[in-house]
Design goal:
globular; Beta-lactamase; disordered N terminus; two-stranded antiparallel sheet; alpha+beta; 19% strand; 10 helices
Length: 324
């Protein structure tokens, strides 16, 4: 009898616990459901807001009077203020970016670094592949982060890129991780970076549209614009023995260094070049029309420098007609 009472009591306790547990689960499910519903709506709103602030197109968009080189991989033209894609030719195709990668490196250095920081050039920084474009840095030299940024963007120095990466994140690997995180946060989800300079790697790729997203964020920073629009830059670099040498870096972008003139009623503010055998010749530009309205143009994969600039000329020539 007592054993039966104990069993009944035990069964009662188990039943009560089960009922209470069911109540807890239901309450938890309700909380989770409410959270998911609330945040789903919020994420939808944020996604719409993100899209409303940018140029968006999932399809190819043609542009009258634009003539592209036959070998071209991709081309695009964006009206920054109009938030409109005026041209889209394969702008979502994954392509090798070459040194246009440095747009992201510059953006991150300005976001996380201090321009006046003194940086010592490491052996790793000067050990880039022999066919790299370089700023001519030497192991043990000291210069500021600001100096390195000009060495990154004007002569397109891969050595500067490595020195910047090591200074910002402690190592190139850590900086590359930051590159991918930040690119993804900007919406550049079709990109993957494995180095800070764009030297060819089959796993290092982006799209014309992703370059627009990154570049568009970069030009919101006044210093970013100052650097990409500079025809040349001169600085003093401290040698390991304490002596000082003066260097002058000149812009590789023909529109900025004065070698090439932009079409009438278009002003090229600045940009970034990039060339490898695999990527072809690439160019990202920030320009303005006669009313100072901003545009971003991207050309990727031209077979030669001449084809690149001829194509970009054709693209820029369409801008005055877009503002009418």
């Amino acid at each position: 009898m007592r054993c039966i009472d104990k069993k009944r009591r035990l069964l009662s306790i188990i039943l009560i616990i089960a009922i209470l547990s069911a109540g807890c689960i239901s309450k938890k499910e309700k909380i989770v459901t409410e959270y998911e519903t609330t945040n789903y709506d919020r994420y939808l709103y944020e996604g719409e807001l993100f899209a409303n602030q940018l140029c968006v197109s999932n399809e190819n968009v043609s542009l009258n009077d634009f003539e592209a080189a036959s070998s071209l991989h991709a081309a695009a033209l964006f009206g920054v203020d109009q938030k409109k894609v005026f041209l889209s030719e394969h702008m979502h195709d994954r392509l090798f970016p070459a040194s246009t990668t440095k747009i992201l490196t510059l953006y991150l250095a300005l976001k996380y670094g201090t321009l006046s920081d003194e940086v010592t050039v490491s052996k790793n920084a000067v050990s880039v592949p022999s066919d790299s474009s370089v700023a001519g840095l030497r192991e043990g030299e000291q210069l500021t982060l600001e100096d390195l940024l000009y060495g990154l963007m004007l002569p397109s120095g891969n050595d500067s890129a490595v020195a910047i990466a090591e200074h910002i994140s402690g190592s190139v690997d850590a900086f590359v991780q930051l590159m991918n995180q930040e690119a993804n946060a900007l919406g550049a989800t079709n990109s993957h970076f494995v180095n800070p300079h764009g030297y060819h790697d089959k796993d290092h790729y982006t799209t014309a549209y992703d370059l627009y997203l990154i570049f568009n964020q970069g030009i919101q920073n006044e210093k970013f614009v100052d650097i990409i629009s500079s025809p040349s830059y001169t600085t003093d670099i401290k040698e390991p023995d304490g002596s000082v040498r003066s260097v002058t870096w000149r812009q590789s972008n023909l529109f900025v260094n004065g070698t090439r003139t932009a079409p009438e009623n278009v002003t090229v503010v600045g940009g970034k070049t990039g060339t490898t055998d695999e990527a072809g010749a690439c160019l990202v530009l920030y320009e303005q029309d006669s009313q100072s309205r901003p545009y971003i143009s991207v050309v990727m994969g031209a077979e030669s420098k001449n084809a690149l600039y001829t194509t970009m000329d054709s693209l820029l020539s369409t801008i005055p007609g877009l503002s009418q």
